[in-house]
């Protein structure tokens, strides 16, 4: 997958060099290219913002540098990328959206600062690219860079070959696998007893069928306790007879 990020803080993306994502880049599974938005300005101050029309606090990002940058980057490959614009007013980013993005060959991110990007930029590209305005949660960050880090990490770990064990992805919370729509239950490792706390004996039994059932029961219990709305969303057809007893 190719990922391009245009930002006034390309250095913000240093974490994309470490851990899983760093390894994925190294293996050639992920081609991440960073661009400085100010390279598409034409004044001595490399200005990217201006005062808002209609008045009010803060500054708004100017359309010209963004459009020049997006034209240059989006036009530098084959079929155009999907343009992702982080904003608190966007479509909520979920595991489902991450799975959708993981199928794309090319994502282009446009993280803003200040009060956001002049709205005409999104209107302009809606007719030429697939544009997604996306929110990572109901709170306001100082800039879109942290949102891009979140989205890239969630998407990259879904790409084939990025995780050592592909099963980790299907068993995850929110994943569409065996635990569809549920939170993952508790996990344990050695030693079997630690500070008097015992690992549930079933996990040491070697009975894979019973372990799978126990895991589903625990996932259900945890989801009911912490996020009951997720269980309600599954509906009766999402639950088997034993589930309903939990
Ligand atoms: N005034 C804007 C509003 O209330 O919607 C918030 C602007 S925020 C200070 C600056 C930038 O941070 C946004 O344009 C966006 O790129 C990013 N941002 C902030 N919160 C975000 C969130 N929850 N999800 C995605 N991006 C966010």
Automatic annotation (TrEMBL):
The organism's place on the tree of life at top rank: Bacteria
Residue stretches making up the tRNA methyltransferase TRMD/TRM10-type domain: 1-232
Reactions listed under catalytic activity: guanosine(37) in tRNA + S-adenosyl-L-methionine = N(1)-methylguanosine(37) in tRNA + S-adenosyl-L-homocysteine + H(+)
UniProt-listed Enzyme Commission number(s): 2.1.1.228
Keywords, in A-Z order: Cytoplasm, Methyltransferase, S-adenosyl-L-methionine, Transferase, tRNA processing
Transmembrane segments: none
Cellular compartments annotated: Cytoplasm
Pfam families in the record: tRNA_m1G_MT (PF01746)
SUPFAM superfamilies assigned to the protein according to its UniProt record, in alphabetical order: alpha/beta knot
EC class name: transferase
Subunit field text: Homodimer.
Family, as annotated: Belongs to the RNA methyltransferase TrmD family.
Name of this chain's protein: tRNA (guanine-N(1)-)-methyltransferase
């Amino acid at each position: 997958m190719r990922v391009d990020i245009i930002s006034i803080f390309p250095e913000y993306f240093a974490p994309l060099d470490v851990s899983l994502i760093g390894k994925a880049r190294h293996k050639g599974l992920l081609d991440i290219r960073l661009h400085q938005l100010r390279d598409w300005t034409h004044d001595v101050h490399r200005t990217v913002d201006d005062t808002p029309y209609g008045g009010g606090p803060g500054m708004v990002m100017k359309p010209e540098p963004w459009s020049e940058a997006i034209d240059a980057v989006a036009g530098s490959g084959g079929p155009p990328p999907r343009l992702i614009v982080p904003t608190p007013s966007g479509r909520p980013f979920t595991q489902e959206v991450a799975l959708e993005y993981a199928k794309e060959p090319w994502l282009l991110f446009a993280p803003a600062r200040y009060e956001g990007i002049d709205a005409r930029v999104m209107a302009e590209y809606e007719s030429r690219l697939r544009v997604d305005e996306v929110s990572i949660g109901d709170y306001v960050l100082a800039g879109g860079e942290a949102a891009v880090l979140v989205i890239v990490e969630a998407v990259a770990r879904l790409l084939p070959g990025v995780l050592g064990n592909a099963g980790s992805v299907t068993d995850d919370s929110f994943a569409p696998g065996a635990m569809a729509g549920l939170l993952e239950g508790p996990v344990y490792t050695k030693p079997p007893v630690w500070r008097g706390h015992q690992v549930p004996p079933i996990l040491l039994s070697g009975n894979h069928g019973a372990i799978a059932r126990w895991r589903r029961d625990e996932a259900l219990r945890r989801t009911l306790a912490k996020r009951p709305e997720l269980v309600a969303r599954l509906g009766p057809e999402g639950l088997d007879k034993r589930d309903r007893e939990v």
